[in-house]
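Long-time lurker, first post. I've been practising inverse folding by hand and with some scripts of my own, and I keep getting stuck on stretches where the structure tokens seem ambiguous. Below is the full token string for one chain I'm working on. Before anyone asks, I'm not after the true native sequence, just a reasonable design that respects the backbone. If someone could post their per-position residues I'd love to compare against what I wrote down in my notebook.
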């Protein structure tokens, strides 16, 4: 079967190598971290990863972790219950619930607050979330793909990032 490149064009040897890796990783449920400088097409690559995965018919839910204030990001990711905070007039599912069965794309993961990284780790390990203001957990079946332009190894060494997406 031919690889769905999802709009990525080019024929360099480097890009051919990227497509080879994409073809191997896409059919798995592995968590993936895509790194590279801003403007290099990380989101296009992630969309191609989803399009070639077994989850392609399920939701692809992107969220830019750097564009949402840290006070709101937890609610965006995990949802909230009615009354959890001042403007929570109704319960609302988060992006992890919306992505159930599919792929969630955490863009600019390097911008995420340390306290929220702990909750992402729980999703990775336990496959469950808890809404803000909630009292119970919900199981979620999502593939997590993250991207950053930061050197996460250096961020870990500086104490700014937990070792959740970096290589051991």
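-- Answer (accepted) --
I ran through it position by position. Result:
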């Amino acid at each position: 079967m031919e690889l769905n490149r999802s709009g990525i064009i080019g024929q360099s040897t480097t890009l051919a190598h990227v497509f080879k890796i994409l073809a191997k990783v896409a059919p798995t449920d592995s968590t993936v971290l895509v790194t590279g400088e801003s403007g290099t097409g990380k989101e296009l690559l992630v969309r191609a990863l989803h399009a070639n995965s077994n989850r392609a018919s399920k939701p692809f839910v992107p969220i830019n972790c750097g564009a949402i204030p840290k006070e709101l990001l937890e609610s965006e990711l995990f949802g909230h219950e009615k009354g959890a905070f001042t403007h929570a007039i109704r319960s609302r599912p988060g992006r992890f619930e919306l992505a159930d069965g599919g792929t969630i794309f955490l863009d600019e993961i390097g911008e995420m607050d340390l306290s929220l990284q702990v909750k992402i780790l729980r999703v990775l390990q336990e496959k469950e979330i808890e809404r803000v203001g909630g009292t119970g957990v919900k199981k979620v079946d999502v593939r997590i793909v993250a991207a950053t332009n930061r050197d996460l190894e250096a961020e870990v060494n500086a104490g700014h990032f937990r070792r959740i997406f970096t290589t051991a």
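A couple of notes from the structure itself: The mean pLDDT is 90. The beta strands are 32-35, 60-64, 103-107, 128-129, 138-139, 143-148. Happy to go over any region you disagree with.
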